User: Which sequence fits this backbone?
């Protein structure tokens, strides 16, 4: 089924959240006003990213990252211009020019940068193709998306959207029990760490804001990032009394047996429609 | 004669009126008006107060289906409609991700009014642009215990299935008390 839409309605941060939580594999294509981005994911991790209007071959990426001199870059372009990135990477490692770590580090930085640039795209048609093969000849990485999602949430400025995302500051937060999530791998700001340190089902978001001296907008933005990254979930504060089920109001004055009988009559009638 | 009601809510153009029309034994009493806002012109008319459908169970029992207006400016009606309901259905258009945030907000609002049993129905699942249910669950931030059901509001069997799932949830609530 389709996973497509417009960034105007469903942001890059939300898309990354979806891909991360569903551990999706496939190609996300985003057609912006001036360029097209192609981003490949493997099991919810960023594996490749490129923009249509700029060179994204390995030699250029390494040269821009100052891992190749201009002379080396020129020679590679002349003699190895037709090589795939995988073949070129192997050549450079086997020739002792660069280590595998150097190459991966440059690629990761490049892919992350491509995704970060998408955060500035307010519009763009996107489509996720789960059947698309990995980009041919490219070296794939495995980059966790949580940091990118939190980075994306920092760009969110619209008060109205934040209020819709987190309407009730009297809710509390708890860490999700999700395998593979490690807070220590996250690049959080000081303010974000301060919020994280107060996360506990007993503390409401409002209380955390008070303790960290943040206004409603600031606390909402940080909580939104943590929610989107799938690190926390909203829960009713532990000491709050859960609202009483209203089923008695709807079926007032009836015994349990009468309530059961009434619902069973409704079920029979609907089945028979 | 006893009457009980189920509320059908959801964002603008989610298919609430069609959902009720599909199973109601009377012509739905719809309070529709021509749409004036350019932004909302994906259809010609919209519900401004409520839709009202009826299913007679037997000579002693009638089920009413109330559809809420989808536009936020009519949300003063929501609390009135939710009064005394047996449960509610949140209908979401599977082809319009721009409405998912609104759907989440409506769901939270209704849960606050009346924490009765509810189900979420992903409407227009027959269309090629429909989002996958697993993706919608994440986008709507629905926990695993909340039923998210595929739905085609114009298909009677599909609507019956959603109503039945809600009634099973209500029955479970009764048993759990």
Assistant:
């Amino acid at each position: 089924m389709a996973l497509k839409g417009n960034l105007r309605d469903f942001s890059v941060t939300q898309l990354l959240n979806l891909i991360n939580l569903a551990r999706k594999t496939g190609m996300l294509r985003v057609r912006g006003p001036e360029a097209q981005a192609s981003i490949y994911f493997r099991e919810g991790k960023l594996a490749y990213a490129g923009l249509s209007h700029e060179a994204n071959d390995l030699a250029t990426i390494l040269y821009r990252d100052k891992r190749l001199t201009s002379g080396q870059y020129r020679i590679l372009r002349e003699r190895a211009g037709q090589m795939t990135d995988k073949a070129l990477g192997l050549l450079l490692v086997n020739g002792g020019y660069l280590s595998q770590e150097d190459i991966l580090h440059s690629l990761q930085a490049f892919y992350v940068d491509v995704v970060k640039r998408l955060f500035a795209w307010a519009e763009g048609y996107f489509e996720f193709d789960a059947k698309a093969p990995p980009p041919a000849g490219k070296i794939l990485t495995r980059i966790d998306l949580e940091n990118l999602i939190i980075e994306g949430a920092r760009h969110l400025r619209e008060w109205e959207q934040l209020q819709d995302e987190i309407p009730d500051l009297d809710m509390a937060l708890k860490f999700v029990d999700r395998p593979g999530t490690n807070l220590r791998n996250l690049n959080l700001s000081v303010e974000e760490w301060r919020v994280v340190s107060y996360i506990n089902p007993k503390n409401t978001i409002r209380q955390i804001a008070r303790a960290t001296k943040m206004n409603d907008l600031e606390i909402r933005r940080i909580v939104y990032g943590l929610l989107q990254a799938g690190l926390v979930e909203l829960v009713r504060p532990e000491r709050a009394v859960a609202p009483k089920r209203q089923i008695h109001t709807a079926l007032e004055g009836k015994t349990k047996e009468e309530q059961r009988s009434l619902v069973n009559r409704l079920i029979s009638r609907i089945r028979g429609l | 004669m006893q009457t009980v009601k189920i509320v059908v809510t959801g964002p603008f153009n989610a298919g609430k009126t069609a959902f009720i029309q599909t199973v109601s034994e009377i012509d739905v009493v719809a309070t529709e008006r021509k749409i004036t806002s350019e932004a909302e012109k994906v259809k010609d008319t919209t519900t401004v107060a409520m839709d009202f459908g009826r299913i007679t169970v037997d000579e002693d029992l009638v089920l009413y289906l109330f559809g809420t207006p989808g536009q936020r400016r009519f949300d003063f009606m929501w609390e009135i409609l939710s009064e005394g309901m047996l449960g509610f259905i949140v209908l979401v258009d599977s082809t319009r991700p721009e409405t998912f945030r609104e759907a989440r907000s409506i769901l939270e609002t209704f849960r606050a009014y009346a924490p009765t049993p509810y189900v979420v129905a992903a409407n227009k699942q027959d269309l090629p642009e429909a989002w996958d249910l697993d993706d919608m669950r994440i986008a709507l931030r629905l926990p695993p215990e909340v039923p998210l059901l595929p739905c085609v509001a114009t298909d009677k069997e599909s609507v019956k299935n959603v109503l039945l799932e809600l009634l099973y949830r209500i029955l479970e609530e009764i048993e759990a008390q």
